[in-house]
Write a sequence for this structure.
DNA sequence: GCCAACGTTGGC
DNA sequence: GCCAACGTTGGC
């Protein structure tokens, strides 16, 4: 089993929203590096749910992958925010996965707090200029974050 | 709203 | 293949 971190704007989907839904499609990833990580995910993998572009950016909980990567339908919907004119049913470069809620942390682990953790120094999330929205997390980093809950 | 940093586009 | 211009991300 592998560990990941994925960013979501809480206005679109928050950890509470996922908790309410139980399961959700994770779509709209439009970056090749992030997409490649999506495709590397296996059912049963777990991920930290990070809230971005919001008043309190940080890790808000844990989710798990319940369906591995498949073509992202939002790329084919003209009215969708994530529509991609270059995608077609035959050739859709983008991927989506299905996820389920696992745990909502009592408090959000803020970005500033995460940056103070020596054990997380190698995590792309805390590195200057990093905009990657889907990234791998090592077992050591995973344990270090769990200890902060 | 600002702006640093990054990714993508497109002319050459 | 280079690189300038542009668009996007995302914290503050």
């Amino acid at each position: 089993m592998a560990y990941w971190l994925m960013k979501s704007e809480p206005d679109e989907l928050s950890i509470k929203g996922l908790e309410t839904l139980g399961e959700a499609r994770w779509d709209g990833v439009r970056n090749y590096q992030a997409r490649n990580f999506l495709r590397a995910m296996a059912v049963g993998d777990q991920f930290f749910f990070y809230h971005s572009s919001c008043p309190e950016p940080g890790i808000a909980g844990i989710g798990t992958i319940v369906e591995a990567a498949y073509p992202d339908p939002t790329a084919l919907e003209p009215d969708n925010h994530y529509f991609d004119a270059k995608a077609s049913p035959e050739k859709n470069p983008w991927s989506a996965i299905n996820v389920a809620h696992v745990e909502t942390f009592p408090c959000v682990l803020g970005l500033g707090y995460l940056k103070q953790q020596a054990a997380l120094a190698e995590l792309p999330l805390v590195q200057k200029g990093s905009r990657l929205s889907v990234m791998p997390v090592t077992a050591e980093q995973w344990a270090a974050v769990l200890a902060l809950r």
The beta strands of chain A are 3-8, 23-26, 46-51, 58-71, 95-110, 134-137.
